[in-house]
Write the C-alpha cells for this entry.
Amino acid sequence: MKPSKNVKSFSQKSLSNFSKDTAGNKQGVPTNLKQIIESENFSVDTVSFDLKQAIQRARQQKGWNQTELARAIMEKQTVIADYESGRAIPNPNIINKLERALGVRLPRQKAKKDKKNKDDDN
C-alpha cells in the first residue's frame, strides 16, 4: 500500500519543525530540557524507604515473587522492581492496586514543602 502524498509531506514538515524546535547540544538533548535537569530546583520524589520495605514485606508474606505480584495487579515486573528498589515515582493508582492485591495498607508519602516556601514563611 502506497502512502498518500499528504502523509508524506506532513511527516517531512514535522521532521523539519522538530529539528528546529529541539535545537540543542550535540547529544540531541533540547537545550531547555538540559537547563531544567541541571537546575538546582529540579528534583523528583521517588517512593519512600517505608513504602518500598512495606511492599517487599507484604509480597514475601504472601509467598509471591515480583512477577506474580505484577501479574496480580496487571503491571510489568519492572514496575514492582522499581517500587521495591525506590526508583519509582509514586503513582496512587499503582499503590491502590498493590494494597488490594497484597491485602495491606501501605504507607503514603506526605507532600513536601519547598525550601523557598519555608524560608518565605519565616
